[in-house]
Structures are given as structure tokens and as C-alpha cells.
């Protein structure tokens, strides 16, 4: 099980042969992290968290942020020590062997594709609300909501997933300027929300603080974790980073700290201004977010609660007397969220590409388009999967499923850092995780705690996905692995458009 370890020196040698141009500094990495983190999580899942925890979601943000912080410290050591593509998959391959590396890579597939679907649904909610309130055009719910939310199919979400897929296939990447503008738009929109919502807070709205007990706070933390996911995408840019030993930790931890402060202020603004008490069923229990029961109850109430909104922040601004600013916030989300979808889908194709390079997936998955010079086969497959997820599932369910894969990968990296300290103590570590004997176990325990706080459907789907992954590994990948076959070094293909769409790269 722990055999077939790919030595770190071999991984680094492979990366050197590929030799991507190093252009990203600490500031660009921090901007990348903020751009990847601030997305559907805070724009949309605020309503999801309110339905699970009420005002207690403030504590949920803190719990999820602490777990992410300790995981980020472990990520920072690995990313600075092993500045190569592949993220948690590559780190696990170097420390814990091929089988666990395969399972981590398989879980990352779940993370990126489903997360892109969740962001697509979030984009749909804000754009549909913007169209309705700005132009008075009401689109039938059947075509903008999935079957679990009381509709039939989410066509706008499918559209944006298809658009991003097309952009990735033809090789259109965001330039440094465009990406920076999108990050500024998102941060400005959230800042404006804080400035308008926080001054009108009513402290009575924070009572009762935890209407569903600590179990509700834990469940909300497990969902809100999605709002922090994205900082690991910074590590996929390690090969394009100047002085990665210094800049990777700054980019990871700096972006996480910046986003945490924003999240707490935004959530306080929502709770204090319009209230965030959950809607209860006839039995006194909270209705499940994204369920038909909650959709029916919200319809009966006229969607007069923030927990009913598909565009929680814009809805809040309209409720407190800023309808045009609410529309502008919806416009900001509509403009900025596609960049998050693009980053998630890029991360998906990169993981596939690296696993295909190692022989664990078919070589066709890394086939390059003769004209556009992009991995078009796996990009199209990924795009179809994302579009189907977005069309039929509610955002909260997609976020929870994505979190299950993410938490597994984060726990694996934390274990890998701890094991590598013992197995290779003399290797140069430009950034050392502080108090590793405490930080790594806390990170693992935090990931396990949040995983078991997820809903039963998400945990079951993760187990099913893991079983499928094991079948694929033993039926196909194990016998074709380059490490298993004794192929010492397999350099990555020189593909210009495989560099990530991040600040510092050019079109």
C-alpha cells in the first residue's frame, strides 16, 4: 500500500525539464488566492449557513477558517519544498505511495468538477436576480432551478459552464490585468456590502444565537468550508513562482487571512441587518437547505427570508433600502464568478494531466489540440460533467460533495508533511510548519470533524466515489503506472496553454 513512492528528487527533476517561466511573486500569489477563494462560498452559501445555524454561522466561519489555517500551514511547507504541479496528489505520491496518491487525485477530481458546478449555480442565482430586478423580466423557475429546488433544469448555470469550457478549449486565458480587475470587483462589492449593512445592524437579530445547537453550527461549518476552498489552487502555480520557497507561504496564508476577515464582517452584516433565523418544519426541525420542502415553504412565505434567497447579499441590500446597490452587487457577482469557474476547471484538467503523465490515466486524457495547443479532450469531458452537475443539483449539495473530496485531500497533505519530517529530516525546508507535532494532527482532526459534520448524502456519495476509484486503480492504473513499470523520469509535454490563468501570465 505504501510502496511505489515517487522520490522528491525525481519529481523536482521532472519539473525542471518542463521549465515553465517563473513570473509570479508574493503579491500576485496573494491576489490569485483571493481571486480563487472569494466566490460562491460567501456570495451564496451565506443563506445555506443561516438555514443550518442561524446567527451561529459566525462561529461556523471561525471553525472552518481555523481548520483551513492549519491545513494552509501544512500546504505552505509542502508547496515551498516541492514547487511542482499536481498539488496534494504530487505531495502524497512523494510521501505515502501511489495508492494513496491515486485516491487523493481521485478526490481532487471530485473537488474541482463539483465545485465548478456549485459556482455555476451561484452565478445563475445572481444573474437571474439581476435580470428580474433591473429589467423586470421574470424567468420561469422551471428553467433557472434544478429539480431539488422546485424547478426542472438550471439553464443559466449550464450556459456559463459551457462558456468557460469553450474558453479553456480555445486557450483563452485571463491576463494579469483582467484577473486583477475581477479580484478588485469582488473585493469592492463585499466592501460596499459591509459599509452599508454593518451600520444598520440590530443586535436583537443575533438572538437566539444558536437556535439549532452546536450540531447546526458544525453542519454550517462543514458547508461554509467551501467558502475557503481555493487557496490550494495557489500551490498549482508553484512552477510559475519566483522564489517559491519564500513566496508560496506568503501567498497561501496571506490570502486566507484577508478572506477570513471579510467573511466575518459580511456574515455579521447579513445577520444584524435582516436576521438569519432558520425556517422550521411542522416537527420543529430545520428544513434541509436545497430541499423541495424548504422551496415550498419559502414560496408560501413569498421568499421573505434571507435563507430563501439564491442571491443572499444582493437580497439583503434590497431589503435595507439599497435596491440599486443590490443590483450592482449582483452584476459584480455575474462578472467575477466565471473566473472562479475557470480556475476550478483549470485545476481539474491540470490534475488529470499530471496523473496521465504518471501513467495512472490514459494518455488520451493529455492529448493536445493541434490548433489551440490545449488538452481539449479532458477539458470537454470535464465541461460536460460540470454542466450536468450545475443543471440538476442545488448549490449547497454540490458544495458539500465538493468539500468531502477537499477535506480528504487536505488531511492527506497534513499527514504527508508530518511523515516527511520523520522520513527525510535533513531535506531543506525554506518554510517550516510551526509546531508540526501539534499543527498537523489538528489539521487532520479538523478535516475529519468537518467531514463527519457533512450531510449523510454527501458522505455516502464520497464513499461510492472512493470505491469507484479503487476499482479503476486496480483494474487499469496499477498495471500502467510509470513508477510501477520502472520508468524513471517522464517529463511533461511542452504545452504553452497549460500554464494557469493567473496574474503574471500573458494571453
TrEMBL record:
Subcellular compartments: Membrane
Transmembrane regions listed in the UniProt entry: 26-45, 57-76, 88-109, 153-171, 178-200, 212-231, 252-271, 325-347, 377-395, 401-421, 433-452, 458-476
Mode of membrane association: Multi-pass membrane protein
Pfam families referenced in this protein's UniProt entry, alphabetically: AA_permease_2 (PF13520)
Gene3D superfamilies xrefs: Amino acid/polyamine transporter I
InterPro entries the UniProt entry points to: AA/rel_permease1
Major subcellular site: membrane
Keyword Transcription among UniProt keywords: no
Record key words, sorted: Membrane, Transmembrane, Transmembrane helix, Transport
Name of the molecule in the record: Amino acid permease
Biological source species: Sphingoaurantiacus capsulatus
Amino acid at each position: 500500500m505504501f510502496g511505489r513512492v515517487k522520490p522528491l528528487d525525481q519529481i523536482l527533476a521532472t519539473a525542471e525539464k518542463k521549465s515553465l517561466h517563473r513570473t509570479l511573486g508574493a503579491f500576485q500569489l496573494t491576489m490569485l488566492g483571493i481571486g480563487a477563494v472569494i466566490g460562491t462560498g460567501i456570495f451564496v452559501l451565506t443563506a445555506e449557513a443561516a438555514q443550518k445555524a442561524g446567527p451561529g454561522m459566525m462561529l461556523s466561519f471561525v471553525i472552518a477558517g481555523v481548520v483551513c489555517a492549519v491545513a494552509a500551514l501544512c500546504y505552505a511547507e509542502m508547496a515551498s519544498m516541492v514547487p511542482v504541479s499536481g498539488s496534494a496528489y504530487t505531495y502524497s505520491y512523494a510521501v505515502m505511495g501511489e495508492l494513496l496518491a491515486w485516491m487523493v487525485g481521485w478526490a481532487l477530481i471530485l473537488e474541482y468538477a463539483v465545485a465548478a458546478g456549485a459556482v455555476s449555480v451561484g452565478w445563475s442565482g445572481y444573474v437571474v436576480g439581476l435580470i428580474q430586478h433591473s429589467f423586470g423580466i421574470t424567468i420561469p423557475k422551471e428553467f433557472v432551478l434544478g429539480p431539488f429546488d422546485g424547478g426542472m433544469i438550471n439553464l443559466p448555470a449550464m450556459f456559463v459552464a459551457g462558456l468557460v469550457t469553450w474558453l479553456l478549449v480555445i486557450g483563452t486565458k485571463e491576463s494579469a490585468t483582467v484577473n486583477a480587475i475581477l479580484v478588485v470587483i469582488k473585493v469592492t462589492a463585499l466592501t460596499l456590502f459591509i459599509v452599508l449593512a454593518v451600520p444598520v445592524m440590530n443586535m436583537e437579530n443575533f438572538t437566539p444565537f444558536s437556535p439549532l445547537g452546536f450540531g447546526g453550527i458544525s453542519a454550517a461549518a462543514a458547508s461554509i468550508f467551501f467558502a475557503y476552498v481555493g487557496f490550494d489552487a495557489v500551490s498549482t502555480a508553484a512552477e510559475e513562482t519566483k522564489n517559491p520557497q519564500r513566496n508560496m507561504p506568503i501567498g497561501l496564508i496571506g490570502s486566507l487571512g484577508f478572506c477570513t476577515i471579510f467573511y466575518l464582517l459580511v456574515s455579521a452584516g447579513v445577520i444584524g441587518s435582516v436576521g438569519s433565523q432558520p425556517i422550521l418544519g411542522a416537527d420543529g426541525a430545520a428544513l434541509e437547505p436545497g430541499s423541495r420542502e424548504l422551496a415550498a415553504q419559502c414560496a408560501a412565505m413569498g421568499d421573505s427570508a434571507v435563507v430563501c434567497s439564491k442571491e443572499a447579499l444582493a437580497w439583503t441590500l434590497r431589503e435595507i433600502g439599497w435596491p440599486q446597490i443590490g443590483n450592482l452587487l449582483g452584476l459584480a457577482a455575474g462578472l467575477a464568478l466565471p473566473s472562479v469557474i475557470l480556475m476550478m476547471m483549470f485545476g481539474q484538467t491540470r490534475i488529470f494531466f499530471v496523473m496521465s503523465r504518471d501513467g495512472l490515466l490514459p494518455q488520451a486524457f493529455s492529448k493536445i489540440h493541434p490548433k489551440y495547443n490545449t488538452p481539449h479532450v479532458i477539458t470537454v469531458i470535464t465541461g460536460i460533467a460540470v454542466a450536468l452537475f450545475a443543471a440538476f443539483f442545488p448549490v449547497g449539495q454540490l458544495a458539500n460533495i465538493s468539500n468531502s473530496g477537499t477535506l480528504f485531500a487536505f488531511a492527506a497533505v497534513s499527514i504527508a508533511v508530518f511523515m516527511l519530517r520523520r522520513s527525510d529530516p535533513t531535506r531543506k525546508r525554506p518554510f517550516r510548519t510551526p509546531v508540526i507535532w501539534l499543527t498537523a494532527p489538528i489539521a487532520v482532526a479538523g478535516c475529519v470533524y468537518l467531514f463527519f459534520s457533512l450531510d449523510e448524502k454527501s458522505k455516502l456519495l464520497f464513499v461510492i466515489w472512493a470505491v469507484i476509484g479503487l476499482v479503476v486503480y486496480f483494474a487499469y492504473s496499477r498495471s500502467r503506472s510509470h513508477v510501477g513499470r520502472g520508468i524513471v523520469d517522464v517529463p511533461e509535454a511542452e504545452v504553452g496553454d497549460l500554464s494557469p490563468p493567473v496574474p503574471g501570465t500573458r494571453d
